[in-house]
Write a structure and sequence with these properties.
489 residues; 16 helices; alpha+beta; 15 strands
Length: 489
């Protein structure tokens, strides 16, 4: 039987606010000493009362609007009860039946073409403390760092509309990009600012009934999500085809073994005994406030992509890559702003960014926001090529050295003597050397294989360390070959 995969995602996003969700403790817990960002509210001490962080609510409304959600006028907070050691109070302040944003969608593009994935809800809650486990003989022990407890956490819950790991990855990439454009989070998966849980099930192809789902946790990268979903879909198929039933449970992704493992039975809403948070009043979200926040929405990736195609004549592929992250798009914007608007220059900047510069960044898994080559230096490099000071081949070498040192391309060209050679007498010795060292290529050219000339020009460029002016090298090689044709018996 052919099966269909059904996937829904729950994405937890730490909001980039100054203070925590329900108290005035600073939210910058990452670099703070253990248990130094705490107060009676974080610790769940008797008598401590929470106060709602207005900026966190604004960020959630902004995200909801960007996801085409409705913003109900009435929302409230609820207590979600469960007895885990990373929860100081024994309950988490979250939202249950009246979230801040509902009924939205996010458009994605993958191999199957364009698709709209429904967004069921966007709600606010507080993050929990961080557990640190220390194995030892006799069972080991765990310690609790309360610094993260109470940090504003926004949850984006999709509908079960995705049918493959590829679609899930495209959804996460688009959502991650959108949140960075909005500026509501750092979006760093490695430090837990962007966390994803996946619900996945399988069903017979063509069926409308949902199968028994499992939840997958502990995925800390887009690659992990992709691999975990593929593994779990295949595991469930094997279970069903063996005549067994899929058990509803929470499973963890084990990166080292590339497998999911059972952790616990899956809780339902009634297991958490939700009830309205008695210490916080319901929120009345005025329509005027929503419209005010709507005016603050920045230009998002789809709009930038369309503008780059219209204003700069870029291809859909290049424009999409340039706007895939806010950092990449901002870098491009800074670069093109340094020269008079021109489609030709925009294309040059795009090619260097998406080609050689991205190659250098990818080698170190580095973001373009941290590039040692600034937009100003990239524009300077393009200018050196345009005015004939260096060849494109030499420019690649200069870019590598600028990346390694952070120095300006002009200074590197001056100090290294990389200026392009346009003097015939300086290039001719290299032409003769190239021809003498490659008699087979010369013979191929003389027998009618004109492509051999390109090989010989490449040898000249190699001998001159890329400094010979390409047009001059090409002309001198052609002239020398024709002279040898005339001199041949």
């Amino acid at each position: 039987m052919e099966y269909e995969t059904v996937i829904g995602l729950e994405v937890h996003v730490q909001l980039q606010t100054q203070s925590k969700m329900f108290c005035s403790c600073r939210a910058d817990y990452q670099s703070a000493p253990v248990n130094s960002r705490v107060c009676p509210v974080c610790l769940g001490l008797p008598g401590a009362l929470p106060v709602i962080n207005r900026r966190a609510v604004e960020y959630t409304i902004m995200t909801g609007l960007a996801l085409n959600c409705c913003i109900p006028q009435l929302t409230k907070f609820d207590r979600k009860n469960y007895p885990y050691p990373d929860l100081m109070k024994g309950y988490q302040i979250s939202q249950y039946d009246l979230p801040i944003a509902v009924d939205g969608h996010l458009d994605i593009e993958c191999d199957g073409g364009p698709k709209s994935v429904g967004v069921r809800r966007v709600h606010l809650e507080e993050d929990v403390a961080k557990m640190q486990h220390f194995p030892a003989d006799g069972g080991g022990y765990s310690l609790v760092d309360v610094n993260r407890s109470g940090v504003p956490l926004m949850e984006v819950v999709s509908e079960p509309d995705m049918r493959s790991a590829e679609e899930a990855r495209a959804y996460l990439m688009n959502l991650h990009s959108m949140l960075q454009y909005l500026g509501v989070t750092t979006g760093n998966m490695q430090d837990g600012s962007f966390r994803c849980d996946a619900n996945i099930s399988i069903r017979p192809k063509g069926s409308d009934e949902f199968g028994t789902r499992t939840e997958i946790k502990n995925m800390n990268s887009l690659r992990s999500v992709f691999q975990a979903l593929n593994f779990e879909a295949e595991r469930q198929r094997r279970v069903v085809e063996a005549g067994d039933r899929v058990v509803q449970e929470t499973r963890g992704w084990v990166e080292e073994r590339a497998v999911t493992v059972s952790q616990r039975s899956k809780e339902e809403a009634h297991d958490y005994r939700y009830f309205p948070e008695p210490d916080l009043p319901p929120l009345d979200i005025a329509p005027d406030w929503v419209e005010e926040i709507r005016t603050l929405l920045p230009e998002l990736a789809p709009q930038r992509c369309a503008r780059y195609r219209e204003d700069y004549g870029l291809s859909e592929y290049d424009a999409r890559l340039l706007t895939s992250t806010k950092a990449m798009a901002d870098y491009f914007e800074r670069a093109v702003a340094l020269r008079p608007a021109s489609e030709a220059f925009a294309k040059q900047a795009s090619n260097w960014m998406l080609g050689d510069l991205s190659g250098l960044l990818n080698q170190e898994n580095r973001d373009i926001a941290d590039s040692p080559v600034s937009p100003e230096h990239l524009v300077e490099l393009i200018g050196l090529v345009d005015n004939g000071a260096i060849s494109t081949t030499m420019a690649k070498t200069v870019l590598e050295e600028a990346y390694a040192s952070g120095d300006s391309p002009s200074r590197i060209v001056e100090q290294r003597g990389y200026t392009q050679i346009s003097d015939t007498s300086s290039v001719e010795p290299s032409v003769i050397e190239a021809l003498d060292a490659n008699p087979r290529a010369v013979a191929d050219y003389l027998s009618g294989k004109e492509s051999a000339a390109k090989f010989l020009v490449g040898q000249v460029m190699k001998l001159t360390r890329g400094q010979a002016k390409p047009e001059l090298a090409n002309q001198l090689v052609t002239d020398a070959l024709e002279r040898r044709r005339d001199e041949a018996p």
